[in-house]
Amino acid sequence: MSSETKLQKNLLPRHVRLMALGGAIGTGIFKGTSETISVAGPAVIFSYIFAGLLLLVVMSAIAEMAIALPGMNMKGFIREAFGGKVSYVIGWLYALMWLIVCIIEVIAAGSFLQYWFPSIPLWLLSVACAVFIIGINTLNVKNYGEFEFWFAGLKIVMIIVFIFLGAGILFGIIPSHETHYMQNFTAHQGFFPHGWSGIFSALIIVIFSYGGTELVGLTVTETKNAEQVLPKIIKGVIGRIILFYTLPILIICGLIPWNTISQQSSPFVQVLATAGFNSGAHVMNFILITAVLSAANSGIYGSTRMLHSLATEGEAPQVFSYVSKKGVPVYSLLFAAVILIGGSLIAYISPDQIFSYLMAIPGFTVSILWIAICLAEIKLRKTYERKPNFLVWGYPYIPLITAIILSISFIAFMLSAQNRLSAIVSIGIVFVLTIASMFQKKHRE
Fold it and tell me: Which of 22, 129, 419, 426 has the most CB atoms in a 10 Å sphere around its CB?
């Protein structure tokens, strides 16, 4: 067995760009939008725009630190700023979050497959999807990046097609069996049915939806010329993510009354079926399956790379640091595979409530991570040996305000009765990790 513990620098800029988009465009948009729309109505687009601005600050902080501290990934920045105990807790929390996200994505893929195979149990379809994703992650990192490039590219093309098709139906360019779609924006208690409180309530779910974009903070160690390419990628990705969420939601709320959108299937499929494009609904369902599997693919990458990072710094079992000749962290992947397949079986126990229980936990973790990144940037800027060519604007006020807003959203999530079970589970995980960090041996360089 090779003792090689270094990852390969084989990811190209186009791979990283599509991985950032792929990680963020998954169940959060294709299935989670039904939940956010039910909370805030059509006005939920303001939740997505607001969360996008917060994300822009977070991603800019990652790019700045990556340039100023070359060779470090996202976890390294947090360790440098706050020490080993904090990075231990956040590192493990992030790895576990991605595994939970993967479980959500493969269960979503299973639920979309039930559109065609209603007689097959959800848990069985979910396990099959999990096995498929694990197989992809056994490829070397360059082939993995290439696969994810096309995987993520397909769903982006699909969203663009949906936007043009939906807009054509909405404005009467494409005929359908119904007209007067525009009234859906003002009927049913109007554009702001639950006021600004609904917009804020949807924010934590939206943050989960955008969670995954910060994955570029882990790709630094496997990207060629990361210092040059990251700022360009981040500037382009943020705007695209906001557009890929807000425009489809406007179309969905225009074509279907917001209070009739079902949480059983994707709003995208419902729109096409409602507009009479049943064959289009089948094509859309196929692309939805590839889309959420792409997000699961990114999730396995994120969890295995974080486990590898933890292991190389002595904060996880050393076996997780082993990398095969293909550049695959084999035992990290094996651990992720066990969790993913085991988690898929949760669908056997509670297929109806599984999404509402699981989706809030990643929102909790992403909030903590984004807050930590903003605070790390504020603390570390004074320590840079050389001034990076890319800096977060309005230092220290913009990153500090972002951290405060994220903290308020985080507290509101914790106090919400709807999220009580998820909050208890999340706090329990943090408590266990905090205790474990106290027993952690001091890492020796």
Answer: 22
Alpha helices for 171-225 (secondary structure H): 195-201, 203-210, 216-219
Measuring CA to CA, how many Å separate 139 from each of 136, 145, 300?
6, 9, 12
SS3 263: coil
Beta partners for 223? 11
d(CA 81, CA 384) in angstroms, rounded, equals 12
| DSSP letter (8 states) at residue 325 | T
286: number of Cβ within 10 Å: 16
Amino acid at 286: F
CB hemisphere CA count around 57 (13 angstroms): 29
Residues 322, 329 contacting (CB under 8 angstroms): yes
Spatial separation of the C-alpha atoms in residues 161 and 155, rounded to whole Å: 10
- Select from 111, 135, 115, 105 the least CA-distant residue to 125: 111
- pTM, two decimal places: 0.78
Q: Tokens 């990251």 label which residue?
A: 230
Q: How far apart are CA 342 and CA 394, in angstroms?
A: 45
Structural tokens at position 79 = 């360790």
Nearest residue to 210 (alpha-carbon basis) of 39, 103, 54:
54
DSSP secondary structure of 216-238: HHHHGGGBTTHHHHHHHHHHHHH
> pLDDT digits over 390-426, tens only?
788 888 999 999 999 989 888 877 777 777 777 788 8
Average pLDDT for residues 1-7, to the nearest whole number?
Answer: 48
Q: How far apart are CA 83 and CA 64, in angstroms?
A: 19
